[in-house]
Amino acid sequence: MPSLDSCSKPSSEEEAWQNRLLSNIHISDEHLNALLRLSAGSRDERGYIKIIVTIRCFVPQAFEDRHVSDELAQDIFNLAIENTVKEKLRSIESIHGYG
Fold this sequence. Notes:
mainly alpha
């Protein structure tokens, strides 16, 4: 997990947008537990890495509070976050016509 020091500082406009996005991300325990029972998940590599790193930078406590230490569980937890971000991005793009 990258430390806060390893994260590049976003512009104030980008940071405000990211904070609005992050404030709307909620992963329920039930959703996480269901995902943890899966053995694999498909990922697409189309450019959500920056936002995932931003989530790790801005809300590292969210990862620690889940006590996810097993490598597979961590991967699936990351996938749950990634999918939630994608859903939120699609919603923002459809409302505001981005992309």
